[in-house]
Amino acid sequence: MHRLAATFLIALALGGLAQAQTQDRPPLPDLLQQAGAATSRGAPDLTGLDASPTREQQLPLFRAVMAAPLEAPYRAGVLGDFLRDAAGSPRELISLAGAVWGARLHRPVNSLMATTEARLRAAPDPLAAGLAWMASTKAGAGWEPVLPDHAQLPNPLRYEVARVLATMAQSHQFLQRAFERFPPGVTPQLLRRQALDDRLTQFETPDLRQLLPLVEREAVLAGMLDLVGAVDRLQRFVKGEAALPSVAWSLQTPLGWIVVDTTGRNNRHRLKDPLLVLDVGGDDDYEFEAKSDTHKISVLLDHLGNDSYRAAAPGADPSSATLGYGILWDTEGDDRYQGTQQAQASALFGAALLVDGGGNNRFVASSRSQAHAIAGLAVLVSGGGDDEFTAQTYSQATGGPLGVAMLVDTGGNDRYTLAKLPLVRPSPQLPDRNTSMGQGAGYGLRGLFFDGRSTAGGMGLLLDMAGNDRYEAQVFAQGAGYYEGLGMLLDDGGNDHFEAAWYAMGASAHYAAGILLKRGIGNDVYRSTHEMVLGTGNDFSVGVFVDEGGDDDYTVGQLSLGVAFANSTGLFVDGAGNDRYTVMSPTCRALGAADLHEWGTPRESLPNLGLFMDLGGVDSYPAHCARAANNSLWAGPRTWPRLDLRSEAAAGVDGQWPLPFALRLMTRPAVPAAPR
After folding, report:
1. Is 654 helix (H, G, I), strand (E, B) or coil?
2. Has residue 260 got a pLDDT over 80?
3. How far apart are CA 99 and CA 457, in angstroms?
4. How far apart are CA 411 and CA 468, in angstroms?
5. How far apart are CA 439 and CA 41, in angstroms?
6. C-alpha–C-alpha distance, residues 553 and 570, integer Å
């Protein structure tokens, strides 16, 4: 199956065509019966979502998860498998992100450049032809470049550089199309103030919230796909050339700097508005100055060496984009990335990509970084190696309004930290620590406490494909959703450690969804200091947690381990292994429970479903949680047992059962018969 065809199929599957038929196997029917919800599909009441003024901004996958939470593990697993298959192709990762974004676009990689390549090959100088488009822009009117001769920049390298520049011309046109409906006065500076600094005046004009429906998603995606395809070809050319000519050439253009250095020296680059940078060889040091408001496209490709990238200003590094495109591609080496806000694959009305091909890397930023997107796409992919990701808030796969952000790490023993201090954005739940909103988080803007105008959230997905990993965060993290947003953390294999405080590990609040899916047989540790973790939803939300196997250790406060609060759905599943559960709350509102924050309201008649399943091994339960025991089926506690309210539907089960749903595709492509 061609990968682009697979992308199309997954887009259909996310729309609801794929049904995990295995969900009716035991113990799920008995568990629903015990909870008093025998006919339930597990969905919370969706009336509010359907009536939301931002209904059209809700992402398709988010809607699918909310409508059928019991199918969420299957959907998450299938998406994870497609991302795993695409991990070696950043263009396909962008294509998948676009499909999840709801952009309906099929754009073949080979046929699109045929006309451009024919023009370049027919030109007396392909480099001059590749740059000619700049003279037609407002900034480049009348510009005539002084070009290197063919001895200074020979073919075929000259042609390959020209090809990327020509692709930029086409991507630049797509950017103009994508945002052509924006009113005057929309600048990167204004958008950063409103979206990143949270300094938005009530009923200000322009208002980023009013811009969201004006974005043409297909145009954003088309231009980024073309650009990533061109950079991919350039990096394959550089890798494949046995002896590149030694070139050191730079040119300042109306749209930014072009730098080509293949000398192999240890360079120190100080760059403002890089348009295209190619550096081959050497341990290089890059420092990026603040971008101009008119700078829309940045591409940096570094091949070989242990490199350092520093950006002191928000949005300065090439892998960030505001009203534009940004790509930073490092093919190999032990690299260091240092940023503040909006760095390391961060898109604000545009698309951003950071590719690190391997090595032991360190990523450090403060906020809105390491795969963060608002009204756009952001992808960070890191190859095998022991990586460290450190930030404070809104980082490590965070999708804001109309944004899709993905962080894919293909291997190694990695560490993801969203630190408690220094305080960048104090949490309303725990003011002495940051709101993490990362490690797979999707969030919207809830206008209830501002001017009453809200925006639907986006999707953040973190996929770690292998290794013994450590995740540390505070509030809203590790598969967390907030206000019409969807967050997912998918970890495949290894003995992993998860730590957080509140709203984490498959948790959500306020019409949102969060999923943590741990596949493979690993002995994992899950620690929470407070509450609302491990398959918990609050306020018409969905929280899903699944651990496929291994001897696991769980420690929580309260309202965790398969708990539904305020008309939500909470699902906790541990598939196999000898597990240990510690619940620090003396009331033990955990292990399959459903509750409301207030009785005597119409919410008492609306669905609220909390399910706990441990499906193998000899397990240890807290003595004060009297309901839970090995080889048992129990109903959750009820405040009003005689009323049999749907708002108190909860149950738990411990026994030897198979998982009640698939975590991977259930079929494989048919093998063609051998020719006779």
Report:
1. strand
2. yes
3. 16
4. 9
5. 28
6. 19
